[in-house]
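The protein record quoted in full:
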Amino acid sequence: MSTAATIAMRISEIGPAVHKNRSRISPASRKRTKLAAVETAAKIIDVSRRDALIVEHLQLVTAIAVRVHETLPVHVELDDLIHAGVMGLFDAATKYEEDKMVAFPAYAKHRIKGAILDSLRQLDCASRDLRRRHRQMEVAVQELTKRFNRTPFPAEIAAEMGLTVNRWRTLMIDLGNLGLLSAQNHATPDSEERPAPEIPCKRDQHPDQVFARGELRSKLSTAMKSLPRRYQEVVTLYYDRDMTMKEIGTVLGVNESRVSQIHKSALSRMQSALTSSGIESSMVF
């Protein structure tokens, strides 16, 4: 028998067996197979949609990162902020739901800012560790200066701190980038002068907190502009001038009850304006 005839015979034997196996597949199994195929296709579409949103809004990440960077110390790198912002954009594109009736840029920018601010908080934690190392180094230098009656060498300082020379050099670079060495007093062996102590700033002066307050003021100012002139006057007099509603009523020529009504309506309108721009709470800042 030829090779072709053998192959034909094998095919004729396999055909009925395949048909028989197919006939054994239950309708429920076919349905599950179709549903699995549909889910796989939906996931592919979601990934394509996510990637398209990310590519389309990369410029939004850069714009937000630049705005934040303008308010920060010089040692904070713009590229680090952009990297954090891209991660926020990725998260936004993954979780975005069109049926929420919020435009993607309005939704994404809060995710991007949040990711950037989170990275700044982590940076602040690292800064606290470096300040601790800086104080440790100052103590080591002072002890070694008294012990040897001269300025200690880098290897001696590193050994006193329990570091290798290479690790100590890396630490010095990090301290310099953070600005902790720029104002350091370089005492001579015969001098007992000590560097000025490093005093951490208060929490409300942290870069992320300063930027968040600025953003909140900007959003509130935009919402204020959507109010009628009389409403703006009431809000300004009440919050900026710290006037009572009775005093505001005297200025505007209306009774205290009317001022209260205007105040309540103004806050409601501002809340609606902020919500329409994608801000549900001041906690987003």
Q: What stands out?
A: The mean pLDDT is 75.
